[in-house]
Design a protein that fits this description.
By secondary structure, the chain is an alpha/beta fold. The chain has 5 helices and 7 strands. Helix 3 links the parallel strand 4 and strand 5. The longest helix is centred in the first third of the chain and has 18 residues. It is globular and about 35 Å long.
């Protein structure tokens, strides 16, 4: 029985390490960056004082496609509460990027970072990958993979920051 308890405890410990109870950068200032594409120039620090959902994505990424409608809906509902989505696309194809924005009625601030400088700065290795940055510019959470941004837990978390 003691052996079983130790085994379960060890497995739980491994899961905690794997899931990243405290991933790097959490609690630190978000690295600032500027991206300019054919449509606009965006600097992360221009959103200081707002809660930023920094989302790295691509048009060819199925989980990114899956999460886009919930990001759009969340942005519509929470923009008056000081929550802004900054969606940074890593697409190389400008036409595919613009078609995606139109097809999905994207109402968020988006910018295309073909060189992937911003995502490299954050160490992004999977898409979508999102960071929650508080009103003081501190990274509070990180999500890897698609998120339902309209879930009550996420909406409550964002509005309380």
């Amino acid at each position: 029985m003691v052996y079983l308890a130790l085994l379960i405890g060890s497995l739980a410990g491994l899961n905690g390490c794997y899931s990243g109870n405290h991933p790097g950068r959490i609690g630190t200032n978000a690295p600032d960056f500027t991206v300019q594409d054919s449509d606009r120039k965006v600097t992360l620090s221009q959103f200081h004082g707002q809660v930023v959902v920094l989302n790295f994505w691509a048009t060819w990424c199925p989980p990114c496609i899956d999460e886009t409608p919930s990001l759009v809906k969340m942005q519509t509902h929470l923009k008056d509460k000081g929550v802004v989505v900054l969606a940074v696309s890593i697409d190389a194809d400008d036409a595919a990027y613009h078609k995606f924005l139109k097809d999905y009625s994207v109402n968020m601030i988006t910018v295309r970072d073909e060189a992937r400088k911003a995502s490299s700065l954050y160490g992004t290795f999977g898409w979508p990958e999102s960071y929650i940055i508080d009103r003081n510019g501190v990274i509070r959470r990180k999500f890897i993979g698609a998120v339902d941004w309209t879930s009550p837990e996420i909406v409550e978390y964002l509005t309380k920051l």
